[in-house]
Amino acid sequence: MTTASPLITDDDADISSSADEAGRVSGGKKGGRSQFTGRDRTVFIAMVAIPSIIHIAIVWIPTFLSILLSFTKWNGIRFSSLEITGVENYDQTLLGAFKGDTYQAILNNFWLLLFLFFGPTLLGMLLAYLLDKNLKGTRIYQSLFYTPVVLSLAVVGFIWQNVMYDQQYGLATVAFGGGGTVDWLGNQEFLFSFGGYGLSKNFIAILFAMAWRHTGYIMVLYLAGMKSVDAALRESASLDGCNEWQTFRHVLFPTLKPINVIVVVITVIEALRAYDIIAVLNEPRNTELLSHLTTNALVGEGADNIGRGSAYATMLFLLCIGFVLWYVTNHYRKQENTV
Amino acid sequence: MAQVVLKDVNKVYPNGYHAISDLNLDIADGEFLVLVGPSGCGKSTALRMVAGLEEISGGELYIGDRVVNDVHPKDRDIAMVFQNYALYPHMTVAENIGFALKLAKVPKPEIEERVRKAAAVLDLTENLDRKPGQLSGGQRQRVAMGRAIVRQPKAFLMDEPLSNLDAKLRVQMRAEIAGLQRDLGVTTLYVTHDQVEAMTMGDRVAVLKRGFLQQVDTPQNLYDKPGNVFVAGFIGSPSMNLMKATLSDSGGGIWVQFGSQNLEVSPNTVAANPSLRSFVGKDIVVGIRPEDISDAELAIEEKPNDSRLTTETTLIEALGSEVIVHFPLDAEPFAIMDAEFEGEDAVEQSKDAQGRTIYVGRFSPRSRARMGQPLTIDVDTTRMHFFDPSTGNAIRG
Known about the structure:
The complex is a heterodimer.
Chain A: H1 4-28, H2 38-69, E1 72-73, E2 83-84, H3 88-94, H4 99-131, H5 138-146, H6 153-164, H7 171-176, E3 190-194, E4 197-200, H8 201-227, H9 231-240, H10 244-255, H11 257-273, H12 276-281, H13 290-299, H14 306-338
Antiparallel strand pairs in A: 1-2, 3-4
Chain B: E1 4-12, E2 18-27, E3 32-36, H1 43-51, E4 58-63, E5 66-67, E6 78-81, H2 93-103, H3 108-122, H4 137-149, E7 155-159, H5 167-184, E8 187-192, H6 195-201, E9 204-209, E10 212-217, H7 219-224, H8 229-234, E11 241-250, E12 253-258, E13 261-264, H9 267-272, E14 283-288, E15 293-295, E16 308-312, E17 315-318, E18 323-329, E19 357-363, E20 374-379, E21 385-387
Parallel strand pairs in B: 3-8, 3-9, 6-7, 7-8
Antiparallel strand pairs in B: 1-2, 1-4, 4-5, 9-10, 11-12, 11-14, 12-13, 14-21, 15-20, 16-20, 17-18, 18-19
Helix pairs in contact in B: 2-3, 2-4, 3-4
């Protein structure tokens, strides 16, 4: 023991002297970060500055330029052809010649969002709940449901076009076609409509194809969440008098809040950015999405005005940013209130 | 409130592991029964079977007069306190405590009233609007208790509820829980691996080893009259010294011989346990509690040599109120854990350089024992324990 005590005093002295030093330095300068050396500070500044600059350069500057472009008419080749046209693009797309496409696309984006929330999300949650019960072969089911997620939506589109929706031999045709042929992807009739806009039958067919992929994604997220929930919580709930549904409703679901947040964000992003599956399947009309209109106006056949594409892109951007702002402020305010 | 009875209860897992074998326990109405044993002994399994969280493979479980083997946990009317408390993280303290009442559709004003009362008892009133994440470990523990007491259930089940607390808080909560249970008079089954908790809290203590019940008795009886060598070694800290010895009959007295030294068994002990005589000339296991060993230098009156052993001090642990002294004897130790038991509790007894086993005595702090110095110890020969080495059972009667 006698040998150990001087060591401890030495240590103490070290600690107190460095604390003194820090105190002196921070006393001299304003702010509490002075315990870092100049070199540390350089590193910190570099670590913040470099990613910020890159981020601004490749995300925000193009975004800003796109918004500017939406007030122009330009073929995208020569700057000399660029004309400033003010709000003409918005006038055309929202009130003029292209308004049919625009509103149907916005509506389709909305249907997609609604569908992803009530279809794949609930189904994915249910599958996760069932798989979490550790049934026999859970891993096999898990892999089966998750496999579509690794495919790109374009591939999903091709698979469904040929395997499910083939007009004669498709699985869906054979199962529900009553022996005849069904043009699943070509039927642009509205299931229901109002004022010339609605939900077209071929878009519904596409929604199902997207659900096939999205369900597995949601399932994996919830499954991971449920696996990490303390088993004692459920046991405690059942001793408190919960039945299966009440346990889920009052205990499991609320504790999955972080997962719910991720799922909401992912689903909204997915609904707004969906593009490839439509690009692959969109021969007939009424399945347009905003992303699709944007791209068509920029690089599609007969694309003559980058300004109009930019106007669509700006609308999409406003929808996104609106959601993000609403969500972030709401979510963080709630968190601040509870913690 | 009700009695809880386990009748020949068995638990066999699908993989064939027999966790509980023919467990019989009779917990009287209002009794505090502690189930204690080393890790892996099946005590938590037994508790979870009572809760309904584990299926019962065989036997019958009664809560009150009703067989509840196949009754869902929510219909058993029992409250459980979990080791990690299992508080609902998204609910406030008040919501946590009142949750069971809300599910039972108790009117709101009554829930509030009962939650308020429980919180007052547990000193949680100021924390009712907080979430579990904002509470200290001790406060969470209280919330878990509050959740149990607010329901006025037939029985409390507690699964090592103090093991996540620091030592000081554990001692405090130990007394609080025991006091609370006494006030409420709710039948309680309490599981712990800590024999101090078991001894201080329980009206009775049931000792479990590898799924087999070893002994159920009051704490004092377990300590004074352990039924077998396992209970003898498990109850008490430091553990009872258990050594292999032979009994011999000489000059009318019975002597215990281990290694090169002898102790005479007190005539009273022999008179009270005549069956000891049948072990004369045979191997036997002798148990001596550290507190029944004292420093001979401190003896007030000169004791006869037949209760004295000479050895030397190898280690001293001064605790202030007492001194734990380690000393070697050339008596072979008796390991309480059988070889097949691979629990963490199977501690190999330490030996000194000459291969002698180290035993432990609990001396008065006035003892002048010094490390490496010769030591003479007095053994209270009226308090020696004897076990049959073939069965491990105490030799009594």
